[in-house]
Amino acid sequence: MKGLLSLGDCNTLGILENEGNAYPERASKQLGIECTNRGLTMASSYELVDLFNDTITPDIGLVTIQCGLVDSWKTFKYAPYVKYYPDNFLRKFARKIVKKYKKVARNAGLHTFLGDKYVVNEETYLFNLKLMIEATDIPFLLIETTPTNDQVRNREIKRYNNLIKMLSNEYPHTYFIECFDLLNADIKKYVMDDGVHLTSLGHEALANKIVTLVDNERLRVEK
């Protein structure tokens, strides 16, 4: 089978002891294929489009996408978004300015009067995913964003998970991997004490989900 390309945020990258041994690497090892992990901390679907375009090659036979943690975050309505990839000095400086701006807005109570918004609204989120899906006919696995210990956040995460579930039905080469309910049922086991990042057991559970789907759908593509 050709290699696996995994796109996502910090939970795709893996943190601490799971970096280099997150669910993409674990799934690839079970499948006996090469892994290209392009997980990026703080990545939204905006960054994933650029990462996909910079990484996709004929040697990739399977793509996993897991994003929504950042996209579904609500922020001050008039706060601009500055990409994390490709990164440079000016973008880092701009993010510091935006962070201070949002802090001032929050302390002044402007969220209450002027409202908030998703970091990436639902329409744009789907548009970004479609840009990648429609660029090739290789299989895409759309993985649910994992739960946090914040139930308010989880409501928004589930909203975005429903979007990718519907999207997976629009294309014959796109598949949906459910994991939110499984992980949320025993969140202390699968999610670290910080309430966001997957434990080793969480990564293992997700890797097993990928391998099971690949085997059941017979997605192995020979070189």
Structure explained in plain terms:
This protein has 223 residues and is of the alpha/beta class. The chain has a single domain, classed as Rossmann fold (3-Layer(aba) Sandwich), CATH 3.40.50. It has a 5-stranded parallel beta sheet, with helices on both faces. Helix 7 links the parallel strand 6 and strand 7. The radius of gyration is 17 Å and the shape is globular. The model has no long low-confidence stretch (mean pLDDT 95).
Q: Radius of gyration, Cα only, in angstroms?
A: 17 Å
Q: What's the mean pLDDT score?
A: 95
Query: What multimeric state do the chains show?
Result: single chain
CATH architecture: 3-Layer(aba) Sandwich
- Tell me the number of structural domains: 1
CATH superfamily: SGNH hydrolase
> How would you sum up the major sheet?
5 strands, parallel
Strand order of the largest sheet: 2-1-3-6-7
Helix-strand string: EHHEHEEHHEHEHEHHH
Uncertain regions spanning at least 5 consecutive residues = none
End-to-end span in angstroms?
6 Å
How many strands in all?
Answer: 7
Choose one word for the global shape: globular
What's the total helix number?
10
| Helix-residue proportion | 40-55%
Annotated CATH topology: Rossmann fold
Structural class: alpha/beta
Write down the CATH class: Alpha Beta
SS strand fraction: 5-15%
Give me the secondary-structure topology.
Layout: E1 3-8, H1 10-13, H2 23-31, E2 35-39, H3 45-55, E3 60-66, E4 74-76, H4 89-107, H5 110-114, E5 116-118, H6 122-133, E6 140-143, H7 151-168, E7 174-177, H8 180-184, H9 187-190, H10 200-217
Parallel strand pairs: 1-2, 1-3, 3-6, 6-7
Antiparallel strand pairs: 4-5
